[in-house]
Design brief:
alpha/beta, 6-stranded parallel beta sheet, 7 helices, 6 strands, globular, binds adenosine-5'-triphosphate, binds magnesium ion
Length: 175
């Protein structure tokens, strides 16, 4: 193993932004980074910014449509098939790019809701660890991933404006 595994989990704000901050830190030293996002649509502001770096590869997102809990069994199966295929494809990208850092944003959530299998996730993580550090973010990281992690950080939400003042997600802050 060349790198260390970081697991950023918990219900507080700051998991994805911490991972993207690490990507920026690595890029600042001229290193190559691969950033991939599970479940989401890839429209968050930091991805547009990171795409401007020559040494950054932002894997094109393949979002799932709608919430997993609202899906029928067939829709869930289809979404899982597609997210597992994405995991395999990201692995190929890592093997091609040999990145010093691989960010797997929201992989924890994809695992927790059965969209990516443990087997596929471990294969991807281990492949990327051969080249550098790997970050897996998202709530509800499974126990095996917390055990596998070298850096395991749990962010606890003590207050969030969504709860305290019903504030909607803000551009440039939440996405
Ligand atoms: P960030 O991307 O800001 O670092 P995160 O990755 O830790 O946050 P996620 O769980 O991925 O958090 O949630 C994405 C966005 O949803 C966050 O920007 C956050 O502010 C918002 N959010 C987090 N917790 C809550 C909550 N309890 N209710 C509503 N929105 C929330
Ligand atoms: Mg996040």
């Amino acid at each position: 193993m060349m790198g260390k595994l970081h697991v950023y989990t918990g219900d507080g704000k700051g998991k994805t932004t911490a991972a993207m901050g690490l990507a920026l830190r690595s890029l600042g030293h001229g290193r190559r980074v691969l950033i991939a996002q599970f479940l989401k649509d890839g429209r968050s502001g930091e991805l547009a910014a990171l795409r401007t770096f020559e040494r950054a590869t932002v894997y094109p997102a393949k979002p799932i449509s709608g919430f997993v809990f609202a899906m029928t069994a067939a829709q869930k199966e289809e979404a899982a098939k597609q997210q597992n295929a994405q995991a395999a494809d990201i692995q190929s990208e890592a093997e091609r790019l040999c990145p010093a850092l691989t960010v797997l944003d929201e992989l924890n959530v994809a695992l927790a809701c059965g969209m990516v299998t443990r087997e596929n996730a471990e294969r991807l993580i281990d492949a990327a660890l051969a080249f550098g550090d790997v970050v897996s973010t998202g709530r509800n990281a499974p126990e095996w991933l917390r055990e596998k992690g070298d850096y395991v950080s749990e962010i606890v939400a003590r207050k969030h404006p969504f709860q305290t003042e019903k504030l909607a997600a803000r551009e440039g802050i939440e996405y």
